[in-house]
Amino acid sequence: MKVAGGNLAILIPSSFGSEERDERIRTYKIGQVARAASVFRVDDIYIYRDEDRDDSRLIDLVLRYAETPQYLRKLLFPKRRELKYAGVVPPLRTPHHPTTSDTSKTNIGDIRTGVVTKVGSDGSAWVELGLESPAPLRNPKGVKVGQRIDVRIFSKTPLTVEYIAREHIPTYWGYRTHVCGPLHSTLSALRSRGWWVLGTSREGRPLDANALIALKGHMSGRVCVVFGSQKRGIREMLSAHVGDGWRQHFDEVLNTIPNQGTHTVRAEEALMATLALLNIVRS
User: Which CDD domains does this entry report, sorted A to Z (predicted)?
Assistant: First the structure.
């Protein structure tokens, strides 16, 4: 069953993890973003451009790799140097990452993510689902080889699947990634599309029980949570472009780790702490 709650997005900088020189550790940290996003049912991850360093393509690649079911990764991700240490990325174990490859253990109505591996001259198509063999797709509707789609098992004798739209899947089905421009333009675009924007900053209002109660009223809609970088917070990110009016880009700015015991909070720590708190009022 799909847990109640509206759409949730996070915004992270393209410099995420750049403080680490070891590529293995950087890959692992990006994997922690994937893990946190999956644990707390994040629907969209926006990677905005940080002038300090733009590793958005790497971050996007690792996040998409982590979100892809293991049985499809070789089909969708050819060998690349950037994925050299992808083995350190923790498994997500989300509903769309099934562990069984035994068709006999599947049921009619089960939903799986697949990749179209063959399209016949008559328009028929077959989909790789991580089972013993690809399954024919009912009503292919112009799919293309290499296309990733979500399907539902229509019959088992013979095994046949049918397309299902993501919005009709009744459970959490992973996140989408988006590579964006600078933070100020990304926020303007999101707010124009009706997103309620929450900034996280040490300079924000301390998050307490009353603030959580107030947040609950927004969590049934479209909420995006913005995080700064290791070097610069969201105020510093925006001030160079909008001056003292940086707060106007947010509907609320909160300090989600008040009374912190360390001089700085790492991006991955802020991400996990903030999403855990929001999960209380989103459920």
Answer: HsC9orf114-like
Which pLDDT tens digit goes with each residue over 48-68? Answer: 999 999 999 999 999 999 999
* Residues 141 and 40 placed together within one structural domain of the fold: no
Total number of domains in the chain: 2
Instruction: Give the Cα separation of 251 and 47 in Å (integer).
Output: 20
Q: For strand 148-156 and strand 111-119, is the pairing parallel, antiparallel, or unpaired?
A: antiparallel
Work out the burial of residue 31: count CB atoms within 10 Å of its CB; fewer than 13 is exposed, 13-18 middle, 19 or more buried: buried
Predicted TM-score of the model (pTM): 0.94
Block residue for tokens 């979100």: 67
- Per-residue pLDDT tens over the stretch 123-143: 899 999 999 999 999 998 889
- Dihedral (CA of 199, 42, 28, 148) sign: negative
Domain enclosing residue 75, as ranges: 5-92+175-279
Residue 97 pLDDT exceeds 60: yes
